[in-house]
Amino acid sequence: MALRIIRTEEDPILRKRSRPVTKFDEKLGQILDDMRETMAKANGAGLAAVQVGMLRRIIVVDAGDGVVELVNPEIVEADGEQEGEEGCLSLPNKWAIVKRPNHVKVRAQTRTGAWRMFEGEGLKARAFCHEIDHLDGCLFVDRMEKMLTEEEVRRLQNERLRTAEDDV
Ligand code: NI
Question: Quick check: is 127 in a domain?
Fold first, then answer.
């Protein structure tokens, strides 16, 4: 496995459309392994192949309940609505309020080519939508309601910590 360099904002590749994966070979497995490692190292909740310079329809998501790998993903169902802060490994230090569906069903292939259904709610639904957007060259700043200042991000994170304490 190897860490890959995460492309950032000014890199024009982030605006390109990724192509479907047609070969389910060892090379795909290697890309997925590298993407998992790169996402974990960067503490991300998701990563799309284009972010490491590969224009292929591949994403990995880790919303805190284990890593899932989705090849050629398509959202087939979306419902509900959530509004919350969102960031991106390719746009360091930028955060915004973005509206997303609260629940999605995604059809995708595994690393061996089998079709499967994936489901996400809350953060996981947000991560699926965000990563699938990357495959069409779309960044969260295109969909944002409002950009957050650093201070606002800090305040939201503190509020969340306090809420977690209240729950206990
Ligand atoms: Ni992103």
Answer: yes
Tell me the per-residue pLDDT of 51-83, one tens digit each, with 9 for 90 and over.
999 999 999 999 999 999 999 999 999 999 999
Q: Cα 157 vs. chain centroid, distance in angstroms?
A: 20
What CATH number is associated with residue 94? Answer: 3.90.45.10
Q: Is the dihedral of CA 44, 48, 49, 52 positive or negative?
A: negative
Which residues are identified as catalytic? Answer: 131
Domain count, the chain: 1
* Cα of 166 from ligand 1 centre, angstroms: 31
**What's the whole-model pTM score?**
0.91
Kindly give the parts of the chain with pLDDT less than 70. 163-168
CA of 1 to the centre of ligand 1 (A): 22
DSSP 8-state symbol, 90: T
Range of the domain at 137: 12-167
